[in-house]
Design a protein that fits this description.
Elements: H1 3-27, E1 32-34, E2 36-38, E3 41-42, E4 48-55, E5 58-62, E6 67-71, E7 79-80, E8 85-89, H2 92-127, H3 133-165, E9 168-170, E10 175-180, E11 187-188, E12 193-198, E13 203-210, H4 211-214, E14 222-227, E15 234-242, E16 252-259, E17 271-276, E18 283-286, E19 292-294, E20 297-303, E21 310-314, E22 316-320, E23 323-328, E24 335-337, E25 350-352
Parallel strand pairs: 1-25
Antiparallel strand pairs: 2-24, 3-18, 4-13, 4-17, 5-12, 6-8, 6-11, 7-10, 8-9, 10-12, 13-16, 14-15, 14-17, 15-16, 18-23, 19-20, 20-21, 20-24, 22-23
Helix pairs in contact: 2-3
Length: 358
């Protein structure tokens, strides 16, 4: 091979090698500057959940008979006393039933009086052998039937009068009306709530807790509850009830927190903020932007401190009003990417932003 041919071959090989290096350079992902944070445990006092003040005792009052509503003297927000009338239906039909039952009772009483007279006469005749034993036995049987008929008529009258009393619904305790379910003129069925009464003295703070976080709560867990309109107004509280299963749509559990002697400003329906009291176990919190949810998996990008490359790590989380609570999968001192998680690739080199560097 001549010198010219060798030189051409060397130049071609160099060009091919340069092209390979260029192609590899093009394929290598660029170094991306990212925002990140070092995982650290924080005080659970930062865990806050919004909720509302609700009554501990709340009862739906309804009719036990079918009828047309003719009165409902209470409205939402009204204070009622024990025994106060909440609603009434048209009693005409029930009054007719009482009159019919009273007439049946009078008839039964007359039949009993007649049967008793017949039995007395047959007994007297039997002593003089003027009548037969069979006639006297028939008179006794008629008297027993008349007595049974009287008992049935008395019970029917008592039942009719009781049904007449059901035409009016009264409150069993003093409280406040929180809801009404029927209007005057409406045909109401037995069991249809016409008024809901709550006892205002006993109040709960009701919150919806993420299912993963609810497992860490127990009955008696202390909380501090404050009004959202005036956070300076606070009251001590403790968990009274935890729903046994989570809601299928929200994946949260309803938690009721008993308020300890709350002031009058904690009115029913007021919006509150519940915070875990001091002394609870520390938690790990991340912003929502740090979480990557894909293919049913919840992951975060973790930065390798030596190579400054990122890798995915699956985590278990629970969400609250302030971000994400990590329940498992991360350790303190790990660095996690907090922004741009959808534009990274596994093994990609990143540049830590100076503001997020320790």
């Amino acid at each position: 091979m001549s010198g010219t041919a060798k030189l051409a071959a060397a130049l071609a090989a160099a060009a091919l090698l340069g092209a390979c290096h260029a192609e590899r350079a093009e394929r290598a992902p660029p170094v991306r500057p990212v925002l990140s944070m070092v995982v650290a445990e924080s005080s659970p006092n930062a865990l806050t959940l919004a909720g509302s003040v609700q009554p501990r005792i709340q009862t739906d009052f309804s009719f036990r008979v079918l009828g047309r509503l003719i009165a409902r003297p209470v409205n939402v927000g009204d204070l009622v006393e024990q025994g106060q009338v909440l609603a009434a239906v048209d009693p005409v039909t029930l009054e007719f039933a009482v009159k019919a039952a009273a007439a049946d009772l009078a008839n039964a009483q007359a039949q009993l009086a007649n049967a008793a007279g017949v039995e007395d006469r047959q007994r007297a005749l039997l002593t003089t052998s003027t009548t037969t034993q069979a006639a006297y036995d028939a008179a006794q049987q008629g008297l027993a039937a008349a007595q049974a008929n009287l008992t049935r008529a008395e019970a029917a009258l008592a039942k009719a009068r009781e049904h007449l009393g059901w035409a009016v619904v009264k409150s069993d305790f003093a409280g406040v009306v929180t809801a009404t379910g029927a209007e005057v003129g409406q045909i109401v069925s037995p069991g249809l709530p016409v008024a809901t009464i709550a006892e205002p003295a006993l109040r709960d703070a009701v919150i919806d807790v993420p299912d993963g976080l609810a497992h860490s709560l127990a009955l008696g867990t202390p909380f501090t509850v404050s009004l959202q309109l005036n956070p300076a107004i606070r009251v001590a509280a403790a968990v009274r009830e935890i729903a046994p299963q989570s809601d299928a749509a929200t994946r949260t559990r309803r938690v009721k927190i008993a308020l300890d002697n709350p002031p009058g400003t904690f009115r029913l329906g007021s919006t509150i903020t519940a915070s875990l009291a001091a002394g609870s176990a520390p938690i790990v919190r991340l912003p929502n932007s740090a979480v990557l949810e894909k293919d049913g998996r919840t992951q975060v990008w973790v930065v390798d401190p030596k190579s400054t490359t990122v890798s995915l790590r699956e985590v278990e989380i629970a969400r609250d009003d302030d971000g994400v609570i990590v329940l498992g999968g991360l350790q303190p001192a790990m660095r996690v990417v907090t922004a741009g998680v959808h534009s990274l690739g596994a093994g990609q080199a990143v540049k830590i932003d100076e503001e997020s560097a320790p």
